[in-house]
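Aim 2, interim progress. The first record below pairs a target sequence with its structure tokens.
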Amino acid sequence: MGPVCGSLQFLVWAAALLFANRPCGLQQNRVTGAGNGNLVIHNCDLCHSKDFTSLEVARPYIGDNEPPVVCMGCGFVYVRNRRSSEEVAKSWDDIWGEGYTSEWPAVKARLFYVAEWLDQTIGLKGKSLLEIGAGEGTFLEMVRDRGILEIVGIEPSKKNVERIRDKNLWCYEGTVETCKLKEKFDIVCLLWTLENCADCIGMLKRARKWLKPDGYLVVATGSRIQVPFKKALSAYFSKNPADMHCFRFSSATLHMAMVLAGVMERQCNNYLDSDCLVLIGQRDNEIPKQDYSPATCYTKEVLDFFQSWSEQFP
């Protein structure tokens, strides 16, 4: 079994959480980005603080994009200026098969890791599974081979949906915002998807709606921070539009995002020894009705982490 997700850092943070009686205020105002459609300026998705500091060490590697920011209220790393989910999905559709494919050995290996770890941790045989952001269906094939009884994907790319259906798998073409599925599932997966959406809390809440009462929500991300460096910082960032990768989670901030969506952590992989962070959660009784205000802030630790990365492995 891996470490309890969030570790001591999150436990200290979670123990100090206080309710704040202020409106959410995620969207502040709209600006127009050259060639990027309408952009919406966001406050921190977790604590909704308006205060931030730019992650300047990213600037040499991101082209004309504005760098991600670090929340001064909690230390969450996010992109402030974002297009709609439909526009972001279109950008991903444009690079599938050319700039990115799940057939790359490293990508296929991490999907295999998640499938095998889930099978050994919660068991897959006889269960139903929904994958949000199903890509080319590589993971869906892997879980089918492990005895999943019912498999459904949600994928905005028409090209990918055709690939998935060619594998005799069922897939809805569209986004979670447009999908009208009424079915509930034993397992709902967000694999390398949550960090690429425009609204991480909204995405988690939608995923929660598709869970059976005792079902499992699985989130996997390879962009985790505050871990040993696995690649050069120049390879970690990209010149793609910044809102194609809105969020950079630590185990603590991913745990908090799930709590805010009404999902409680049940299991976490040994992410320090692997290339990805995988968290399994289950539905809490209710979704928090107010914002959380963390009394402990990790902004300095996050900034120090990226500064060290830029110096040791640029």
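The second target in this work package is listed in the same format:
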Amino acid sequence: MLQIPVAFAPGVSPEAGGCDEYARPRGETLFFTYTTLTLYILPLLIIIPCYTSIAITMIQRSSETTNPIASNRYKRTTIRVLIVGVFFIVMWLPIHVVHLWMAFDPTITAQTPLYIEWHTIANVLMFINSSVNPYLYAFGGTSNPFIRHLKDIGQCCCCGIMKLMYKMKGDTVTGSDRGNDHQLAKIIESSTSVA
């Protein structure tokens, strides 16, 4: 909903050779200021209090519990929440700074070599954040269901490798052969010695 006004910002740009994401000349200042406010500042105003509240709650529960496993879980959750928050702040700040730099400095255009370099670096950081975020949430501990599921997939892949190796040797795989690391090692060893 907050991005609906951006739909009305595009205009024709002689520099771009056609349509542009904002109308010139003041459009870029308004466009990048608005997107920085709605895509960075507003989320920060929501994330910081929420993540701080979660961290405080987890720290309090960690100190109240006598169960060391639960205490460690609370501490891991606190660390994970703080890492996700800091990661967002650090990785998304450069793209907004670079955009605002171009919007407010009349000597900088989208074709300025320095702008292109910094914009590329800022975009890479932003995409890294988006790519790494699921892993920051998912890999919070070994008791995590996501981790257990990945281990199951890994074992299934090993079963698939073992079946393939058996087929290459002309053998069949029985139910008791599945997941047997010792047999898998023997198969791999024998297939590499043959090749």
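The chain has two domains: 4-141, 152-194. This observation will shape the mutagenesis plan for the next reporting period.
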